[in-house]
């Protein structure tokens, strides 16, 4: 038995591979089989992380195990889906038992937290990279997409922004900070918590949603484009963590919140009538702007002046024709 | 807009990304949405191909496009599933328009041939590798697995064996051959045809099935282990192509058929009562052995003597306890 077959057996025996609701056949055959209840659809998303590009190499394999799955499951949260299963395609330059065990521990922990079962995948030799494909179920026609935002809706986010971008100099060893600052920022980076409950609570209420992975302004641009609307973002409404502001200062913290990636909190648009009940239920919703006629994204200061950064990477605002 | 976002748009506009039966939402949102009809299950499989490991680098991107999808869809054939959709995680060191266009042409052609729609994926920078996740539908409880073989069943394959292994010296430029020999071998290697029709025809008839990717003896070992049976393979019944025999000679051709990988024809076990009707329907079924009590795989010569190669990589035969 080759070493890569041993790895397959290792993952097949992992706690997260022991079936689960909706998994009719798990690891070990040519395909896994998923059961989708009547009246539901299957949501599917694929994400790749490459060593040296999406994470530092070397890095802590336990943290990588957590983060690699969380990043993928966050796309299920963005659709309002309930996680069911995932596949893991793991490419490794060498096989190291310690590395694999630590990686699997991180993976198991995040899988348990998100309620997903490992149902298959592939293990190959090559430069370190990971591709996760995640599966969730959602009542037919109720998935949250990017394309339903309406002029007049509120623009909201599900949590603090910029923490992962703030953590990057710590992750890369370029800066240090006291634990009171470093720990919360690094936790956001390495162990993002997919907003699954919020996504499900927004079904039938939010008019559009996505998870913030490329940065707030860039991702708002995706909603604006798909929904054919304009989005106004008010800089002074951005939720910033005390640790981020203490680490970067207020101005750079705002920049991290606007353009930094890897936040994995939800951005969504909501008719204002829906807001009170969601807040009363305790969901962490921050209103950061509104939807208008037009196309693209505009950043406003407290005086309502356009202070949109003139950089590439997202869709600038223009009036409706 | 970054170059990798341009690539995503390029694939989103590809013919194979234009929806299809069972695709409720295709490329362009956080997730795709698949509809699974009542009474059916979703079959899922993931395969990774790494440059320099699973294919020569550089290689013809058109052929790689065909092969990368065919290899993955073959797992759907092995379950008796009907292909629906796939995701593509493509990691590229550099972005070259010619390469991408040729790759996408190959991908489109195989996608059309197999009836699958591209519904999502990821495009990242890094060493060249491809991970495909494929989705198919199968009536609940009717998927072909590896675990149902019964003593007394026939052991069968769905076509000639060893052609892809025979092609390898040609692919790697280590040998040459006249077109009458090289062309059919290379076609098997670069453009394997997933046996989707055969897999579906075997539903409710075959007691176990898989596709041959690691080599006949190794893959028979997987069926033997999952089904808790012994498999006897008769060397002189192995179907060999005239091109393979002419290229390698009879003895090496048999070795390629027994141990060479990448055949992507189905291996399956069948109660003998099912054979006549399947043959009458024109399915290319070759009986190569039988299922017995015991555990593992034994290779027999024409005199019924055990000539199992004493190498690692598959399960040797032993009597039942």
From TrEMBL, chains A, B:
Its EC number is 2.7.4.16. CDD domains: ThiL. It catalyses: thiamine phosphate + ATP = thiamine diphosphate + ADP. Residues 28-138 form the PurM-like N-terminal domain. Mg(2+) 3 binds at residues 30, 75, 211. Keywords: ATP-binding, Kinase, Magnesium, Metal-binding, Nucleotide-binding, Thiamine biosynthesis, Transferase. The keyword Cytoplasm does not apply. Mg(2+) 2 binds at residues 47, 75. Reaction mechanism of ThiL seems to utilize a direct, inline transfer of the gamma-phosphate of ATP to TMP rather than a phosphorylated enzyme intermediate. HAMAP family: TMP_kinase. Belongs to the thiamine-monophosphate kinase family. This is Thiamine-monophosphate kinase. The gene is thiL.
């Amino acid at each position: 038995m080759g070493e890569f077959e041993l790895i397959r057996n290792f993952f097949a025996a992992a706690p997260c591979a022991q079936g689960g609701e909706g998994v009719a056949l798990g690891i070990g055959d040519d395909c896994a089989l998923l059961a989708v209840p009547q009246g539901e659809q299957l949501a599917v998303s694929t994400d790749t992380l490459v060593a040296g590009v999406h994470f530092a190499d070397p890095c802590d394999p336990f943290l990588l195990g957590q983060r690699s799955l969380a990043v993928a499951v966050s796309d299920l949260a963005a659709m309002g889906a309930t996680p069911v299963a995932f596949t893991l395609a793991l490419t490794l330059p060498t096989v190291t038992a310690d590395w694999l065990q630590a990686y699997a521990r991180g993976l198991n922990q995040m899988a348990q937290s998100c309620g997903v079962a490992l149902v298959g995948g592939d293990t190959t030799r090559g430069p370190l990279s990971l591709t996760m494909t995640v599966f969730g179920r959602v009542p037919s026609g109720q998935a949250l997409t990017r394309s339903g935002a309406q002029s007049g809706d509120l623009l909201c986010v599900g949590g603090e922004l910029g923490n992962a971008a703030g953590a990057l100099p710590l992750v890369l060893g370029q800066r240090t900070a006291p634990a009171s600052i470093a720990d919360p920022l690094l936790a956001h980076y390495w162990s993002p918590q997919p907003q699954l409950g919020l996504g499900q609570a927004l079904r039938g209420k939010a008019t559009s949603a996505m998870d913030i992975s490329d940065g707030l302004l860039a991702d708002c641009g995706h909603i604006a484009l798909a929904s054919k609307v304009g989005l106004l973002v008010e800089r002074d409404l951005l939720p910033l963590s005390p640790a981020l502001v203490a680490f970067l200062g207020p101005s750079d913290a705002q920049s991290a919140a606007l353009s930094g990636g890897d936040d994995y909190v939800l951005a969504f648009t909501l008719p204002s009538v829906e807001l009170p009940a969601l807040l009363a239920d305790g969901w962490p919703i921050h209103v950061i702007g509104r939807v208008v006629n037009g196309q693209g994204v505009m950043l406003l200061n407290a005086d309502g002046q356009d202070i949109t950064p003139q950089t590439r990477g997202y869709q600038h605002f223009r009036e409706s024709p």
